[in-house]
Design goal:
alpha+beta, Helix Hairpins, 586 residues, 14 helices, five-stranded mixed sheet, five-stranded antiparallel sheet, Beta-Lactamase, 4 domains, 15% strand
């Protein structure tokens, strides 16, 4: 901007210098013309005065004849002078007018140019001033910003100065504190050395104790370096493997425990555990249970500790137990088969005893003595109880031997069918049975019917005399976390197969207002032929709840009872909503 303004001012100065020179030339030309006109006019006036003088002289001498002849000549000269004067005046005036016209035109154009130049200069100066004004505004803004930044920086510097001063004070206090602590440390150095010595003695004592524990341990313990070489062993290794202690140090696992130095089954890094077959020095082999734990320093394996135990005796006991379990399973199977066959074979004699007893009683009713009729009644009652017992045994055997596949079972439909079977007993006792919404699960339909029949039948049977039975049947769906409580795990542990601890479960609750029982018998009631009351008080064989336990076990569920004497009982049944594929096909 400054360079542009300087260049503009220079050009304007040069134009101003040229214009006065041109104007002065025009003035000089005009002055010359005026001087020339004045000279011609003066000459003409002089000529006129001479002509007038001559004319006057001639007129004075007109009285003479000779003078009168000269008058025309004088008037002719005077006319010529007038003509020349008029011509000169006209030419001079015309020249003067032309000169004035040119001068006016020239100065008009000059003034127009100067006005245009001045206007352009004013525009340029205006633009220059506007630029200067914008620059000044920017400069002011920059100055204001710099001023604000300076103030901010000054404030920051003041704050930093205060912080530095605070830190300096803090450092001084810290230095003072460190000096005091140094004095305390120096004063406690002796005490610390005493503690270190005492701790060293304790560590040495612990080391001797650990060595004693290692030496007295029955398991073999070996320390290995990162190459698998033995660095320490306890006496049990010598006793189990037959290798002397001095020969064990420096040997690898393969050289000690495996034939031909082969290393079988032990991982080189990472913790491993399991069973393996080791070899003694004499070549005999023996089963062991081992744990191999790596020793790490800075996330790098630098060794391992191998602990193993000779389990020859345990394996022998396990084989014996497996044989006994197989024999027991075979015996139980034979007993179940015998009970099933015997129950069927006993049905026919009992039916004949009851049939012939009824005939004898009807034909000899008039002649038989009262004692004989009492004997007949006892015989028939005993046969009836025996038949009921055999029916219960058959139900128990069917619950054990059932292999029916699991299907989708609507428990609400099953409950309605069971209530239909018990309709006479319900009407006779005026019982109130409340059945809530029951789910659909995968189960054996016949066994679900038997389960509800036994539980609802017991709720109707075990009632105080003269009371109205109230039975409530409700259900809810549980997740695996809610279902795996203590009672469920106890019941699941008694099942004969794998217990699913995942998925959803159905909880059935059968509540009654009956006589109840002491909860110390809550497990006894699920055993076969176990009764808490005499046969004269309540009928039954003591097999119904055992059948319920067998049914829940087969369905990989559980059944438990909660009760108090005189306050009724609650039987809780937990069953999986959906069986696994392997379970559903059994």
């Amino acid at each position: 901007m400054n360079e542009t303004a300087t260049w503009t001012d220079g050009m304007a100065g040069r134009d101003a210098e040229v214009e006065p020179r041109a104007g002065w030339g025009m003035l000089v030309l005009l002055a010359g013309i005026l001087v020339l006109c004045l000279c011609i006019s003066t000459w003409m006036v002089w000529e006129a005065s001479q002509s007038v003088t001559r004319l006057a002289t001639q007129m004075d001498s007109a009285t003479t004849p000779a003078a009168s002849g000269a008058n025309p000549s004088s008037f002719s000269e005077f006319d010529q002078w007038l003509f020349r004067a008029a011509s000169v005046t006209a030419i001079g005036g015309l020249a003067l007018l032309l000169t004035l016209h040119k001068t006016v035109t020239f100065w008009r154009s000059q003034w127009r140019q100067r006005l245009q130049t001045a206007e352009d200069e004013w525009h340029k100066k205006g633009a220059f001033l506007e630029g200067q004004l914008a620059d000044s505004r920017k400069s002011e803004e920059q100055l204001e910003r710099l001023h604000a930044e300076g103030l901010k920086r000054a404030t920051s510097l003041e704050s930093e100065k205060a912080q530095l001063q605070a830190e300096l004070d803090k450092l001084k206090r810290t230095e003072k504190t460190l000096s005091q602590k140094q004095q305390v440390l120096e004063s406690s150095k002796a005490v610390l050395e005493i503690h270190v010595q005492a701790r060293t003695k304790e560590l040495q004592k612990l080391q001797r104790r650990y060595e004693h524990i290692l030496n007295s341990a029955g398991e073999g313990i070996c320390g290995l370096d990162e190459d698998g070489k033995t660095t320490f062993v306890n006496p049990a290794v010598e006793k189990i493997t037959g290798w002397p202690l001095d020969e064990l140090i420096g040997k690898s696992e393969g050289e000690i425990f495996f034939r031909n130095g082969a290393k079988e089954g032990l991982s080189l890094d990472g913790q491993s555990a399991g069973e393996q077959v080791f070899h003694r020095k004499d070549g005999t082999c023996f089963p062991v249970e081992f744990v191999r734990t790596p020793i790490k320093e800075a996330e790098k394996v630098v060794g391992a500790v191998l602990v193993f135990k000779d389990i020859t005796e345990r394996k022998r006991v396990e084989e014996t137990l497996a044989q006994k379990a197989a024999e027991l399973a075979r015996s139980n199977s034979e007993l179940e088969q015998f009970a099933f066959v015997a129950s069927h074979d006993l049905q026919e004699p009992l039916r004949k005893i009851q049939a012939f007893g009824d005939r004898l009683k009807s034909k000899c009713e008039a002649v038989v003595a009262p004692d004989a009729r009492d004997y007949l009644d006892r015989m028939q009652n005993a046969a009836s109880r025996m038949r009921q017992l055999i029916d219960d045994l058959l139900a128990f055997s069917r619950a054990i031997r059932s292999t029916e596949p699991f299907t989708s079972v609507d428990l609400s439909v099953v409950a309605k069918e069971v209530l239909g079977d018990l309709e006479v007993r319900i009407e006779k006792s005026r019982a109130q049975v409340e059945v809530g919404e029951l789910p659909t699960i995968e189960a054996d339909p016949m066994q679900m019917r038997q389960l509800l029949l036994n539980l609802i039948g017991n709720a109707l049977k075990f009632q105080p005399a003269g009371s109205v039975p109230v039975v409530k049947i409700h259900s809810r769906i549980l997740d695996s976390q809610s279902a795996t409580d203590t009672s469920f795990l106890r019941g699941a542990a008694g099942s004969g197969g794998a217990v699913p601890l995942f998925g959803r479960f159905c909880e059935l609750r059968i509540e009654d207002n009956g006589i109840g029982f002491d909860e110390q018998y809550s497990e006894k009631i699920f055993a076969v032929f176990q009764r808490l009351h005499g046969r004269g008080e309540y009928e039954g064989s003591g097999v119904g709840l055992a059948v319920c336990r067998r049914i829940t076990d087969r369905h990989h569920g559980t059944i438990v009872a909660k009760s108090q004497p005189g306050k009724g009982s609650t039987f809780i049944v937990i069953l999986p909503v959906q069986q696994t594929k392997s379970e559903a096909s059994t």
